[in-house]
Design brief:
By secondary structure, the chain is mainly alpha-helical. Helix content is about 65%, strand content about 5%. It has helices spanning about 1-15, 15-35, 55-60, 75-90, 95-100, 105-130, 140-170, 175-185, 190-200, 205-225, 260-270, 275-280, 285-295, 300-320, 325-335, 345-380, 385, 390-415, and strands at about 230-235, 240, 245, 250-255, 335-340. It has a 3-stranded antiparallel beta sheet. Pfam families: SecY.
Length: about 450
């Protein structure tokens, strides 16, 4: 405890770090306050929360702003959608590939296109969002309400984008990811209280057991996020003027889960299609009715089987497009580096690809298990709200953002010659000697 208090004191002793932390807290407070400002023309007393399926997932990410029909009801989710679209375009379309290679000017162009696409997506989603609000809660003309809501929701999304960018520039951590994490974490106290009340006094021991399981699940996700496979790299001796520099031995860190949370997001999006399509013929076919009811229940074994298989497929797909062994091998060759025992060039690329393929399988299986664990938790009697914190997209996002934020704080402390956040030493990934392959 004494070391922890000393670390907190050291954090606030650094002027720049203290200002950044206070800025982050201030921006987050504004974001949370906006989540409770209801859209003009909505009677909050008549609102009926729709938290089923995709709506429930969005409401979790947005910290209740969706069910509150607030001005931040769509949050930064349209921006996330636009970013994913642009990311896929930079892989598939040569024009965007060229733009990405233009350096800072290319990134500015891509960011501008992303913002414009965000506005378009927000306007489209605003229409769909208005349709989810029950008619009793709308206190003005429906057409006028739709038009004004589209404008307000778009302005709210743009403002959330601005907050996220300000957190990145003036605060700590990645602003966009931070806003998503805060939305998720804001639901935790209520979910924890509801779970405790549901168990009552005779279930106190069971509640403690659930907390212990949650702790081990979080630790497992941290291991998955941090796990890397090191490929040793040797750099040849170099001559600089009259000096001879000995070769350096470093390593390439290949993450076991290089795809991050994207496979779950892609798979989750596709899992809504079977029930939506089957709903078109539900009244005419018993099979369609069965498919619709089965895939609307995320605790059914059929749903989780298909969900897990999709995550396996998307993990390999997203790893393949995000980690390019050919580019890594070329960069190593240009910088005079080589993998011991492997010829530079094509042989190095094949070697890296083989290792990447092998480590992706256990990472994909573990990611699939994490994704379906909330359904397993619900099957054992845990409430729906609390079960969302036992895995899935929510937990992976929270762990990733917290680790990234701690690493940034760690770097500030180490630059000022203070002890780090962890008693055992440095946080992995920020301060170790890693081969810079880009």
């Amino acid at each position: 405890m004494k070391k922890f208090l000393t670390t907190i004191k050291n954090i606030f002793a650094i002027d720049d770090l203290r200002v950044r932390i206070l800025n982050t807290i201030g921006f987050i407070a504004i974001f949370r306050l906006g989540s409770y400002v209801v859209l003009p023309g909505v009677d909050p007393n008549q609102l009926k929360a729709n938290t089923a399926g995709l709506f429930g997932l969005l409401d979790t990410f947005l910290g209740g702003a969706f069910s509150n029909a607030s001005i931040f009801a769509l949050g930064i989710m349209p921006y996330i959608s636009a970013s994913i679209v642009l990311q896929l375009l930079t892989i598939a379309v040569p024009y965007f590939q060229k733009m990405q290679k233009e350096g800072e000017s290319g990134r500015k162009k891509i960011n501008q296109i992303t913002r414009v696409l965000t506005i378009v997506i927000t306007l489209a989603q605003a229409v769909g969002f208005v349709a989810t609000i029950n008619a009793e809660a709308i206190a003005i003309n429906t057409t006028l309400f739709t038009i004004t809501s589209m404008i307000v929701l778009t302005a709210g999304t743009i403002f959330c984008m601005w907050i996220g960018e300000k957190i990145t520039d003036k605060g700590i951590g990645n602003g966009i990811s931070m806003l998503i994490m805060i939305g998720i974490v804001s639901r935790f106290p209520g979910a924890l209280a509801a779970e405790f009340l549901s168990k009552q006094l005779n279930g106190a021991l069971l509640f403690l057991f659930e907390l212990a399981v949650l702790f081990f699940v979080v630790m497992s996700v941290i291991m998955l996020t941090q796990a890397i496979r090191r490929i040793p790299v040797q750099y040849a001796k170099q001559v600089g003027g009259s000096s001879l520099y000995s070769g350096q031995r470093q390593f390439i860190p290949l993450k076991v889960n290089a795809a991050g949370v994207m496979p779950i997001i892609f798979a989750q999006s596709l899992m809504f299609l079977p029930s939506m399509i089957a709903g078109l013929w539900a009244d005419q076919s018993e099979t369609a009715n069965y498919i619709g009811s089965t895939f609307s229940d995320f605790t059914s074994w059929q749903y989780n089987l298909v969900f897990g298989l999709l995550i396996l497929i998307f993990t390999y797909f997203y790893t393949a497009i995000s980690v390019d062994p050919n580019r890594i091998a070329e960069d190593l060759k240009r910088s005079g580096g080589f993998v011991p025992g492997v010829k530079p060039g094509k042989a190095t690329s094949e070697y890296i690809d083989a290792i990447l393929t092998r480590i992706t399988l256990p990472g994909a299986i573990f990611l699939a298990l994490v994704a379906i664990f909330p359904a397993i938790a619900m099957m054992f009697g845990i409430t729906r709200e609390f079960s969302q914190f036992f895995g899935g997209t929510s937990l992976i996002i929270m762990v990733g953002v917290v680790l990234d934020t701690l690493q940034q704080i760690e770097s500030y402390l180490l630059m000022r010659h203070y002890d780090g956040m962890m008693k055992s030493g440095k946080l992995r990934g920020r301060t170790e000697n890693i081969a810079m392959v880009s």
